[in-house]
Amino acid sequence: MAFTGKATYSAGATLPELAEDVSDLIGIISPYETPLLDALGDPMREATSTHHEWLEDELLPNKDTINDQSIADPDGETQFDVDNGSRFRAGDQIQVEGSEELMLVTDVNGNTLTVARGYAGTTAENMADNQVINILGNAALEGEGKPGARFTNRSRCGNYTQIFTATVEVSGTDVAASKLGLADEMDYQKQERLRELIRDLENTVINGGLPVSYQQGSDTARRTLKGVVQHIQTNAFRTGDSGFPAGNDLDEAKINYVLRQIWSNSSSKVDLIVVGGHQKRKINGFVSSSRSYAAGDTKFTDIVNIYESDFGVCRIVTTRWLPQDVVLLLDSSRIAVLPLAGRSFYFKPLASSGDYECGELIGEYTLELKNEAAHGVIRGLSVS
What we know:
Helix content is 16%, strand content 28%. By secondary structure, the chain is an alpha+beta fold. It has a six-stranded antiparallel β-sheet, with no helix packed on it. A six-stranded mixed β-sheet has the order 10-18-14-11-13-12.
């Protein structure tokens, strides 16, 4: 029997007494997460100038390189040149890397060493130009006067702050009108712009660079901060480099090569491996061949969140803002993202010249990355 009473479909959804059925939740699809900033955490201090500086130092080096193309005879060659003679003293026991022979330095004249070959009963071996020499330690004479003082000079490093801003402007009518999904349009716009600024801060911390000139900024030159990728120079590797593991795909050989280079040349404890989505899948694949499952397993796990090697335990951080062909290996104890004092993100109300409310979100930040040789980067990896 046909329905003869009043029904909503008689006039569609245009009946004046029907309330709109709209969810109170507003869905945001745009990515705005900042995993690297989350991993680094809040800094313990603030920057106090637009040029934030810190001091770095290092111990006297205990390695050098042979710089003598004529060196060959293992028995008669008691003098040879090195790159930096100032690193050596009479009484140093030295050893060429990869050799079993010990030598004792008897005299240093500029960059020329005079040595006793086959020291401590070892056998003299051939040496070659560009071989690395390890300085084991110095043997002082009993009753000898003090040796000449040696020291390193501290270096002063720094980075500039960058200002991040966004304007919020809402008409008086928009403020007064009731809204679906929110109580205050002004507050909602603040939240949206703040998400964008924090997203941009992480992107800049990773990829930003200093201008060639006027780095301090002016009324016409914008001041920008130098990001992590641009900071790392010593342990920067690219696929195809001489000595770097072959191939364009990320694998354990490449990760361990860089970790070993950092470990060999610094006191760094790398604890973060930062990657994009494609390289994260490559890392997950490191253990694919060794997975095993029981007949009753109904869950397939294909994820690696921690990578433990001989050179440290590293947490894997996946960020959208790192170039897909790049992997960063970082010591988080030497990195901080600092606000300029009193300039962490805040909202500044501005005078209105009409029927609207307006203001500006402002934040000023810099990156402190100490001892760039304590970090590493791999570039040129395959992304397909």
